[in-house]
Amino acid sequence: MSKVFIFTASTGAGHNLAAQSLKESLDDAGFETEVYDAFKESNVTLDRLITKGYQQMVVNVPKLYEQMYNQFNNMNRFQQGIFQVLTKVMNPEIVPLIRAGNPDLIITTHPFVTNVLGTLKEHNAFDVPVLSIVTDYKIHTLYLKKMIDAYVVGSDYTKQTMIDKGIAPEIIYPYGIPIRQTFLKNNRLDPKEETDIAGTILLMAGSLGSKQMEKAFSSLLKVREKIRIIVVCGNNAKIEKEIRSLNKRDASENKIVEIYGFANNISELMDLSDAIISKPGGLTSTEAIVKNIPMIIPFYYPGQEEENADYLVDGGMAIKLNKIKDLTSMVDFLFENKYIIKRMSENMSEEAAKRSMSKTIELCQDLIKTNIEKTIEKSAGE
């Protein structure tokens, strides 16, 4: 039985969900799989600094996060020095873990971790193939390390952005960002089962929630049509409380409102929905694509989510709004012209058809097989 180590990091839920989705599929395929949070494994202080710092920055000072994102996307000597320090801090814990566990393959779902593992492998700290899962639709420079053996990316567009940055096309595989198997099931209602409502909108903003959700919810309450609004607030109890208060104050008879905090049944809620209003995180976007449910994007964190939004809009799978208050007229327009929603859904279906978890599993098997053959050849040469 082949052993696989998956390294993730808790800056947002997407990287961890991708790791767990991979574990789920690899376990089903007969692999022995372990998932590790790289920063928690290496240094408690480092983990708090990076994960908590990330959460505080993207929520409270997004412009500063955007500046840092862009600076690290154009790595100069200073940024490279930061990652050399990061590698030295993680080395004493990560390398012994790898050597003791002796995995046949290492997978990483986070750009920081990809960078660190690529650097460690470059310094001969271990000799195990490394597969990097790119969890957004435009590549960030941190992912790019010459000792990474292969990349699985979300689309042909992502692959091209990597080729443009000098990565060999033969090690880039556009098999799709891994998502949970429950999202592969389709439980959408037949048209005959639908009620007299014009449609259903799912409003959410990732695991952290978003201050912009209140404005979005207020805009949806002003839509002319009778609609169902499903709101998922994530782990943000303050946002949930304020949205419940808004609903109580501004509720009308032609709005059916359901409000949740953190929800484990997002797949089922998507199946009930005609469109999703959300930040375009890599995992959320992929789940929507697989479900063929068009996205309306009135808010996003700068950096990778802005780039994801551009990818979705260019592919005819999403509509990006400049102002949240425009949600009211946009939703009215879409429900008056449902052929637009249908066409966006068809575009998503075409994109979803290109993804393949089975091919990702085959790639894992091939990487392990190739490494074993190299080891045998090396031993024979000695």
Automatic annotation (TrEMBL):
Keywords, in A-Z order: Glycosyltransferase, Transferase
Glycosyl transferase family 28 C-terminal domain sequence ranges: 200-354
GO BP terms: glycolipid biosynthetic process
Highest taxon in the source lineage: Bacteria
Compartments where found: Membrane
Gene Ontology cellular-component annotations: membrane
Family classification: Belongs to the glycosyltransferase 28 family.
Protein name: Galactosyldiacylglycerol synthase
Record organism: Acetobacterium bakii
